[in-house]
Amino acid sequence: MKIRDFNQPRVLVLGAAGILGWNLLRANESFIGTIHKNPVEDLGNQIYRLDISSRGDFVKLIDKVSPSLVINCIGMTDVEICESRPEAAYALNTVAPRMIAKECATRGLRFFQLSTDHFQSTTDEINDRTEITQFEATNQYSLTKLFMERQVLLANPKALVVRTNFFGYSPSSKSFFSQLVTSKSGDTFTGYKDVFFNPLGVMTLVHLLTAMSKIELTGLVHAVSNDVISKLDFAKIVLDASGTSASLVSGLLPRSYPKRPHFLALQPTESLLSLQQVGSIEDMIRTEVNRFPPSQEFSTNEAKGRHSDGL
Question: 57, 51 in Cβ contact below 8 A?
Fold first, then answer.
């Protein structure tokens, strides 16, 4: 890894309505953001509307705001929607990032592309899930992400692809984490005891990406926690930290279509550990739970079929 300081980079965040995009902007007032259709709340940043499927619109925006770094948080992340709309998933998750990578390379702009941990490997061992592991796709979502990673780095070898998994607060979030935090008595959730991951709290990821924006990083990195936890135990900690009386049922990942991987945990990239201290998953959960306003509530059915503007 080469280290070079960048003084106050001018950052454009694509996908300000998503959890990560919103938190990146909220934490960095100088960052500029884009939205497609979804409005954003509680942001004082410059916000522009952008249809990322239009290369012409993206080029016009780049010429207007003159960023030194572009961070793409846009993506179709709902696995079922990706499966039912594979062409749309490919356009948003693969074609658009490749276009952004090319335009950034042409203009000499730095580019961060967010990716996922939703890949299958030959073994369920974290030491076998490194940046050089040959992962396999299990569904359309993971296929579009694998294609994206390869095409982005081919189009722009100086780009940075960040594999990650995160949870946390934003005003518009209807994620499973948000449902757990805002649940009420009588709500019931299923936690999978056979699915394992090592996510970051979104504010930890925000601080990490902000630190990464000030040094020179290229290639592929894993921005994840050192702790591996089951989805069941994760849900238990969230409900406990929230003080809710919702019920949690232990379950197994359904074998229904589309297929999903059981072991998502990635080996963290060692060079990132010096940039930002990463606490335990329990500490990050409690930090994110405490960010929720007391009055914020979601129906447990609201998140079904959601098409997110952010990763």
Answer: yes
